[in-house]
Amino acid sequence: MPATNLLAGKTAIITGGTTGIGRAIALAFLAQGCDVAVNHLDLETDKPHLTSLLAEAAALRTADPSAGRLAHLPGDVRDPETGTALVSFCLSQFSASRLDICVSNAGICTFASFLDMPPSLLSNTVRTNLDGAFYVTQAAARQMARHNSPPGGSIIAISSISALVGGGMQTHYTPTKAGVLSLMQSAACALGGYGIRCNALLPGTIRTQLNEEDLADEKKRGYMEGRIPLGRTGEPKDLAGPAVFLACEELSGYVTGAQLLVDGGLFVNLQ
Questions:
Q1: Percent of residues, the chain, with pLDDT higher than 90
Q2: How confident is the model over 226-233, as a mean pLDDT?
């Protein structure tokens, strides 16, 4: 995405920002002039992704000095303090007086049989996907409502097409994504008076680490692609433009409480 400075001078936090959709959104924001602080778990498996993300961010600024700066902070979104720490870190790291954008992206998805599902998998999925989204949204909203001058900002949560349809191996996952969508709808009502816009992006089948094993099955991938009107599964970068749109006040200043499907037309072809 070319740097046209749609988000020049803005600050953003993104949870789960080193891989997949979160990474693509982070790079798009940087290209648009936004300073970005990403959260990650700091696992050994994360380190190569973080290293390459930092290198890409540096290359962006070398090519275009108006590109935003990148910072990162470890933390588990299941902990209520992680969101608060990420907001404070972002403001101090960039010497900023306001937080403009929050992207709640961190999430997990492990396919499992409903009848055999252990309570631990349900609990971990709910705590990460739904509780984590609530905590970071609340932390961002507190900054945007009480300390931004003037109040305001954009909160974007990554829900899923799974919020709208069922999945036999996702009985623990789809309710969390429906909850994330509902969270944005209710937060839009709660925070509109502060000028804070809250919206959800609903990706369809996007090739990320969460589903790479599933999509490695050529027969299954072919079946899925055959149901998508655009004829392909999505890439993380397909979410970047919609995220920039929702983050930019000039483009989407009257959009809140909305759900934006980014699925290649899959949902309308499921009937």
A1: 89
A2: 91
